[in-house]
Design a protein that fits this description.
- With 201 residues, the chain is mainly alpha-helical.
- The protein is built from 7 helices and 2 strands.
- It is globular, with a radius of gyration of 17 Å.
- About 8% of the residues have low confidence.
């Protein structure tokens, strides 16, 4: 089961280019106010991930938040809260610590309540966007210790985006397992005749 889920997630991730017009957010068209250069590129990806995670979390029925494809993997709620915790924990590496008093230990197992999970997810992405805007361009090449080696703040921002993308693919696979079509795929089905559709995810 674990292997089948891994293969399915991989297929979802490499399914092709996403048609951004089908989303509610298109930073490549609308811009990323407050940042330019590399941070703008990172922020654009984070904005798209926020849009997709939030829309998918809203589409999942509340009674499925505790669902998991097998006992040894995260549930829907745990995946969304794991991403939320990472949005708080990882950005402290580039200079923006989590808000004071926020309990991150055990966050991913803290609730299966749909409204609370979505609120936490949204708050964490707001934190992520603030952190990216606050990271000085001059610090991007700063070297840090990283998994027994070295990385730059630029590389850490790239890692954070990749980490969230992996879990977005996981969430899409989960959604398909329980019969939920990702909202942006539903949007593409409504594309007016004559407009070219992007590959499905």
């Amino acid at each position: 089961m674990k292997r089948m889920l891994s293969v399915f997630c991989l297929l979802v991730l490499v399914a092709g280019t996403v048609q951004l017009v089908a989303q509610g957010v298109n930073p490549y068209k609308d811009g990323t106010p407050g940042v330019t250069g590399y941070r703008s590129e990172v922020l654009a990806e984070v904005m798209i991930q926020e849009d997709k995670f939030t829309r998918l979390a809203e589409a999942i029925p509340a009674d499925k938040y505790a669902w998991r494809p097998s006992p040894d993997v995260r549930s829907f709620a745990e995946v969304f809260l794991h991403v939320s915790a990472a949005n708080y924990n990882l950005y402290k590496l580039v200079g923006t610590p989590p808000p004071t008093g926020l309990a991150l230990k055990g966050l991913e197992k803290s609730t299966t309540d749909k409204a609370k999970v979505i609120a936490t997810l949204k708050d964490s992405f707001a934190h992520a966007k603030t952190a990216i805007k606050a990271t000085p361009d001059a610090d991007l090449d700063k070297s840090l210790d990283w998994f027994g080696g070295k990385n730059t703040e630029r590389g850490i921002l790239l890692f954070i985006v990749r980490h969230a993308a992996e879990h977005l693919g996981q969430s899409i696979a989960y959604a398909r397992f329980v019969g939920v079509v990702p909202p942006w795929t539903e949007d593409m089905k409504k594309t007016p005749p004559g407009k070219k559709e992007a590959p499905k995810q």
